[in-house]
Design brief:
The structure holds two protein chains of two kinds. Chain A is mainly β. Chain A has strands at about 5, 10-15, 20-25, 30-35, 45-50, 55, 65, 75-80, 85-95, 105, 110-115. In chain B, strands 2, 4, 5, 9, 10 and 11 form a six-stranded mixed sheet that branches. A five-stranded antiparallel sheet of chain B has the order 1-3-8-7-6, with no helix packed on it. Classes of the chains: A mainly beta, B mainly beta.
Chain lengths: ~120, ~110
């Protein structure tokens, strides 16, 4: 059964701690994305990667870091430098094959609460 | 950068009434996508439009892309409680594939 998994579903951390969110996909997609969603708002792009060992900053990359060592995995680290880390984090992936579809497949998300 | 504005932010309807959400851009869009996010869930792709004046239907949902490719709409006929959720429009960058999302319209349906 193909898809995107994110773990954990809920995560609680103390202020000042770094935390890493997991994102794994078995769809054989080249591109992966991290979004942040705050209550009542749309999704904002944090980082994206179009190919293994390469990634680019999105619109709100400050305080976050990523790695893309494997095609299937795109973990996101929320560092202590992120001023308002409490949010719903969504990972997505997309094929970059033939055609002009920009459809993205989303994981179930991780709700991070920092106190 | 390119932005998409979506209205209204919230809509409450009685079950059986129709619903429409609108997405607008000041610049021409190469494509527009629509996603649905159920409460507590994640966005799920509904459809992509790429042609000027394009109209696509999925059962009670009708999607339109404007002639100038600067606006789009999603219309739901005879809403049902299963339609509850937030509907987002999004534009996909042709270079990177990254999506620029509208703010979303949250639909509540009273039974």
């Amino acid at each position: 059964d193909g898809g995107i998994t994110q773990s954990p579903k809920y995560l609680f951390r103390k202020e000042g701690q770094n935390v890493t969110l997991s994102c794994e996909q078995n769809l054989n997609h080249d591109a992966m994305y991290w979004y942040r969603q705050d209550p009542g708002q749309g999704l904002r792009l944090i980082y994206y990667s179009q190919i293994v060992n390469d990634f680019q900053k999105g619109d709100i990359a400050e305080g976050y870091s990523v790695s893309r060592e494997k095609k299937e995995s795109f973990p996101l680290t929320v560092t202590s430098a992120q001023k308002n880390p409490t949010a719903f984090y969504l990972c997505a992936s997309r094929t970059t094959g033939q055609g002009i579809s920009y459809e993205q497949y989303f994981g179930p998300g991780t709700r991070l609460t920092v106190t | 950068g390119q932005q998409v504005m979506q209205i209204p932010q919230y809509q409450h309807v009685q079950e059986g009434e129709d619903f429409t959400t609108y997405c607008n851009s000041s610049t021409t869009l190469s494509n527009i996508q629509w996603y649905k996010q159920r409460p507590g869930g994640h966005p799920v792709f509904l459809i992509q439009l790429v042609k000027s004046g394009e109209v696509k239907k999925q059962k009670r949902l009708t999607f339109q892309f404007g002639e100038a490719k600067k606006n789009s709409s999603l219309h739901i006929t005879a809403t049902q409680t299963t339609d509850v959720g937030t509907y987002f429009c999004a534009h996909g960058s042709s270079n990177t594939g990254k999506l620029i999302f509208g703010q979303g319209t949250t639909l509540q349906v009273k039974p």
